[in-house]
């Protein structure tokens, strides 16, 4: 999980610099490994977001379908 409240002010203010900070924060939170999925909390002016990572759009779509199957099976 990435807590956007921890984002440094200089990153918040520089257009386009949030994504590299978020990627580093996600990798740090996963113990140095690139996570398949991460969640970032919202902050003032920032909505909460879940990010699913894959090698291409097909892999991401397959992962989403698997999550949906697992979720549906628990109902």
What does it look like?
- This protein is mainly alpha-helical and 75 residues long.
- It has one domain.
- Helices cover 45% and strands 11% of the residues.
- It has three helices and two strands; from the N terminus they run ααββα.
- The chain has a two-stranded antiparallel ribbon.
- The relative contact order is 0.15.
- The model has no long low-confidence stretch (mean pLDDT 88).
Please supply descriptive tags for the structure shown above:
mainly alpha; two-stranded antiparallel sheet; 2 strands; 75 residues; single chain; 11% strand
Give a quick precis of the structure.
This protein has 75 residues and is mainly alpha-helical.
